[in-house]
Design brief:
Blueprint lengths: L1 H5 L4 H5 L2 H10 L1 H21 L8 H20 L7 E2 L3 E3 L33 H12 L3 E5 L2 H13 L3 E5 L5 E2 L3 E2 H7 L3 E5 L7 H7 L4 E7 L15 H10 L4 E6 L17 H6 L4 E5 L10 E5 L1 H4 L8 H4 L3 H16 L6 H7 L2 H17 L4 E11 L7 E10 L1 H9 L5 E2 L1 E3 L2 E5 L8 H17 L6
Parallel strand pairs: 1-14, 2-12, 4-7, 4-8, 8-9, 9-10
Antiparallel strand pairs: 3-11, 5-6, 10-11, 12-13, 13-16, 15-16
Bound molecules: pyridoxal-5'-phosphate.
Pyridoxal-5'-phosphate binds next to α7 and β9.
Length: 461
């Protein structure tokens, strides 16, 4: 054993190999060193587990390590966040980046970020997006930050630090593990005052909790769960009135950024940003990458008196979005207000009528059939996901293939990975979340996955 381990070449000998030397030029020394060490370590592990009959020659060992090293370098150079086809039928898939991004919303290399074209003088970075959000949401004032958690942090820190915020016990939400309303409150230095019960909270609960320490009343949208049965909660307009009687703001964490009546697309209704503003909310905040269909962002809209100072708060500098997000959000908001919703990938997917999806599924089945792959058509139910309209589904079409988890995995290993769902021994690919131009890639990936399974001796029949 010791003898065999001693045979391992030193790192500098590997670095001297011609192909590795060349790799040093293209890949950089840190990556090459890491690949060398990993290849060596793997070889050492191999020697521990399987003892070769004949100790391999020096050149053979070097050759093996070199091969593995180059393989690792090729792996290192691939994008860390692979582009893929979402065939899960979940439109806002948290693990797949929520709303799909669009190349069309990418930015120019340079842009008038803090530059006034007319005067040629320095401009304000926040002003253009602020005006855009104000117009689209019909709000007096607006601010954009990095995500909705940042919205809440900024709002609470600026308005309620060192004071109390009243929240109903039914709304102490957790979203995706790392976002918990009580924790954000603590981070912002304010005291949470819980009122009511999990299923029932009344206006008088809020009234009784109000004191001169109260800084705000906060309502958080129950975005990823439902409380059904014997329930009660005061109207938002009543809460707004109560807050105003005490000269404090009524804050709403709306969450999804819903701007449209979702029922027109067969989805469950969700209260829109406009409706909260109409009910008298002073501040409404929401995510940019949920129902807005834009980049990761947090948008804050509402009364100038409360929202304007947020953009001047020292914390804002730490929470402000980058130019990619700013310019993408600007284009997405313009599409919302001009009614060209189909330009936003999320809405292109959301608005596709089920019969259109059925036709695409049929075409896909025909084409796969002629390549010798047996697939069935199936009607499916898609969901919005991403903590919006919980429990609500809408009709869609997809294809069903024998293959179970093995096929599901093979589909992830293809050049353009496909993420699907598994139901017993069949894989279901829902076309609701597949963009039209991705159909041919989907077909290719299915054939590729089939070959992967074939090579592993795991084919359908
Ligand atoms: C999604 C959501 C959040 C968190 O938003 P991020 O943009 O992920 O930070 C907070 N509150 C509500 C109600 C949400 O739906």
């Amino acid at each position: 054993m010791k003898q065999r381990l001693r045979k391992l070449p030193a790192v500098h000998r590997i670095l001297d190999l011609p192909r590795i030397k060349e790799a040093l030029v293209h890949c950089g020394r840190p990556s090459v060193l890491r690949a060398c060490r990993q290849a060596l370590e793997e070889y050492r592990q191999d020697l521990r587990t399987e003892v070769p009959e004949e100790p391999p020659g020096d050149q053979e060992v070097l050759g093996k390590i070199e091969e593995r090293c180059l393989q690792l370098l090729a792996e290192f150079s691939r994008p860390s966040y692979a582009g893929l086809i979402n065939a899960t039928g979940v439109l806002l898939h948290t693990n797949l980046g929520r709303a799909p991004a669009a190349a069309e919303f990418g930015t120019e290399s340079y842009l008038a970020l803090e530059f006034d074209l007319e005067s040629g003088k320095r401009g304000q970075r926040l002003t253009p997006i602020r005006k855009r959000i104000e117009r689209v949401c019909g709000a007096e004032a607006a601010v954009m930050v990095n995500n909705n958690a940042a919205s809440l942090l900024l709002i609470l820190q600026a308005i309620a630090s060192g004071r109390e915020v009243i929240v109903s016990r039914s709304q102490l939400i957790e979203i995706g593990g790392s976002f918990r309303l009580p924790n954000i409150m603590k981070a912002a230095g304010c005291t949470l005052v819980e009122v009511g019960c999990t299923n029932r909270t009344h206006l008088r609960d809020f009234e009784e909790a109000l004191s001169d320490r109260t800084a705000a009343i906060l309502v958080a949208h129950q975005s990823n769960f439902q409380i059904l049965g014997f329930t009660a909660s005061p109207r938002d307009s009543e809460l707004a009135e109560l807050a105003h009687r005490h000269s404090i703001p009524f804050i709403v964490d709306q969450g999804s950024g819903c701007l449209h009546d979702l029922r027109q697309w067969g989805l469950a209704r969700e209260k829109t940003v406009f409706e909260y503003l109409d009910d008298g909310a002073d501040i409404v905040c929401f995510s940019g990458d949920k129902l807005l269909g834009g980049p990761q962002a947090g948008l804050i809209v509402g009364k100038a008196e409360w929202v304007q100072p947020l953009g001047r708060h020292p914390l804002y500098r730490a929470l402000r979005p980058g130019k990619l997000a700013l310019s993408a959000m600007d284009r997405v908001l313009e599409a919302h207000s001009s009614g060209h919703l189909e330009e936003i990938p999320l809405y292109e997917l959301l608005m596709t009528p089920a019969p259109t999806l059925k036709k695409r599924a049929q075409r896909l089945r025909r084409r796969l059939h002629s390549s010798g792959l047996d697939v069935e058509l199936c009607s499916t139910m898609s969901t919005l996901g991403g903590g919006t309209t919980p429990g609500s589904t809408f009709p869609s079409w997809g294809i069903r293939i024998q293959g179970g988890r093995a096929l599901l995995k093979a589909l992830r290993m293809t050049n353009t990975p496909v993420i699907g769902c598994v139901e017993e021994d069949r894989v279901i690919l829902d076309l609701r979340t597949v963009r039209v131009h991705e159909d041919s890639s989907l077909e290719k990936s299915l054939l590729e996955a089939h070959h992967i399974l074939k090579d592993l001796g795991l084919t359908q029949k």
